[in-house]
Design brief:
nine-stranded antiparallel sheet; 267 residues; mainly beta; 38% strand; Immunoglobulin-like
């Protein structure tokens, strides 16, 4: 059974005012693996009011893959965010960063229809946690795709910190089934939300099976994995949910939920 390792590093970005004091702290985090983090195109940078913020996300997972799966890797979409506002300065800055992805081949040769493959939703907090650090994670599956959770393919949950330390969340604290959520399938601990303090992240990995080939954004409708994250921090400005609006599909704008086009090959 494959075991993920998590060596994320967090990159500091422009300082933002802490609610309880005027001291500035570089907080904006980015999850990256030991693989080279791809530079984002200029239009994928995420400017926010009263702050200059540039995101450089990379794969946040490295799997010790078997030789038979050597071509497969984690394919992640660009991040989406929720925002918060300092009650002291009025500065608006990134509160949470979320990404979704799946494990497949860059040349779209894998996974194949009928095969089990892995999907992930990741959320990290770069904002302050003074007024709450909880987050709810939900996922929406592409067409002709269902969960494939079983004894040999369980749900796995992980948490980590900026320094690169990480651990698996085991037992009942990691949900081994999805429940009906506000937007899709919810993966949450028994208490209903994940604790994601400043500089920490949580990730849920779960198995899927697609019965038909998928062609990503080229499909009609587009074949995407989408995510929805509810940020329960008291400083949030705008919607609590980073989620699709009005049933919209991918590609979505920042703040409308993370997404990743999915390619599934013929058998």
């Amino acid at each position: 059974m494959e075991a993920p390792s998590y060596p994320p590093r967090f990159i500091g970005h422009p300082a933002v005012a802490r609610a309880a004091a005027a001291a500035a702290t570089a907080l904006l985090m980015v999850a990256a693996s030991t693989q080279a983090a791809p530079a984002m195109a200029p239009e994928e940078s995420q400017p926010v009011a009263a702050a200059k913020v540039t995101m450089r996300p990379g794969d946040n997972i490295v799997y010790a893959a078997a030789a038979a799966a050597a071509k497969r890797k984690w394919l992640f979409g660009k991040p989406s965010h929720t925002y918060e506002q300092s009650p002291v300065t009025g500065t608006i800055y990134v509160s949470t960063l979320e990404q979704v992805g799946y494990k497949g081949a860059a040349d779209a040769s894998s996974p194949k229809a009928g095969q089990v493959y892995l999907r992930s939703i990741w959320v990290g907090r770069s904002g302050f946690d003074d007024t709450g650090d909880e987050a709810v994670t939900e996922v929406m599956l592409p067409r002709k795709t269902k969960l494939a959770i079983g004894k040999s393919n369980p749900v796995r949950c992980y948490t980590g910190v900026a320094e690169g330390k990480s651990r698996q969340i085991k037992g009942k604290k990691c949900p081994n089934r999805a429940t009906k959520g506000a937007y899709g399938l919810e993966f949450s601990p028994p208490k209903g939300a994940w604790n994601v303090p400043t500089g920490h992240w949580v990730q849920v990995i779960f198995p899927l099976r697609s019965s038909k080939p998928l062609k990503g954004l080229a499909d009609t409708p587009a074949a995407c994995m989408m995510g929805a994250v509810k940020n329960l921090n008291g400083y949030v400005v705008g919607p609590l949910w980073d989620a699709p609006v009005g049933g919209e599909s991918c590609p979505t704008a920042d703040g409308h939920g993370p997404y990743q086009g999915v390619f599934v090959a013929k058998r």
